[in-house]
Amino acid sequence: MHSSYYLSILQGSLLTVAIALCSLVVAVVLGLLGAAARLSGRPLPMALGTSYTTIIRGIPDLVLMLLVFYGGTIGLNHLLELMGSKKNVDINPFAAGVLTLGFIYGAYMTETFRGAMLAIPKGQAEAAWAFGMGKTQTFLRITAPQMVRYALPGFTNNWLVLIKSTALVSLIGLKEMTYISKQASAATRSPFEFFLFTAALFLIFTSVSLYGLRKINARFSLGTVRGTI
């Protein structure tokens, strides 16, 4: 009987990985936009970027998760009611989990990317412009490759924490491996073995991620003094 629960947890781990990867995409996009806003030199984008990182990093992930899922559902239905619609809309738990985690870690990625961009000497971009490169070409060929190297240590930390934070989506009913572990523990009254198994899976995911990101860091650090992540 227990073997079926282990299989269900393994199946749930695929959903965990999917949530983490989708959330990472959202976080990276928001992080790049946030970093660009904070470094734009214009008051409004700078204020928005600073407010985003300050507020989001100051609110617990769990509170934001519940606020988006439950508060968003109530707010959306109330808006539809004001518009005269009698339909009730339920926010998809997967979308809510991905968007919330992506939104949260986008704030952390913003600071990571901003610090990486600031670490690149401004003279390099100015030299590229002097050779006739446009801003987009300069970013892709000069800034981005170096930014990756500077951003990888912070990016790695954010990604490892994001993977572990996927356990929070179990609270909104998404049947990833933490949710299934709780069900298996309640059904068999053997919480230790199932949560230990889930912890081992998280450890495998983070270890594989750390190994891969170290390889990437080594690739982008060729010709420089190598650091560890």
Describe how the helices and strands are arranged.
Elements: H1 2-38, H2 43-57, H3 61-82, H4 93-118, H5 122-130, H6 135-165, H7 177-188, H8 191-220
Helix pairs in contact: 1-2, 1-4, 1-7, 1-8, 2-4, 3-4, 4-6, 5-6, 6-8, 7-8
Could you describe the 3D structure shown?
- Helix 2 packs across helix 4.
- Helix content is 79%, strand content 0%.
- The radius of gyration is 21 Å and the shape is flat.
- The chain starts with a helix and ends in a 9-residue tail after the last helix.
- The protein contains eight helices and no strands.
- It is mostly helical.
- The model has no long low-confidence stretch (mean pLDDT 85).
- The protein has a single domain, classed as MetI-like (MetI-like fold, Orthogonal Bundle).
* Mean pLDDT metric: 85
CATH level-two architecture: Orthogonal Bundle
Oligomer: single chain
- Helix/sheet category: mainly alpha
Radius of gyration: 21 Å
Give a summary of the structure in a few sentences.
This protein is an all-alpha fold.
Supply the key terms.
229 residues, mainly alpha, MetI-like fold
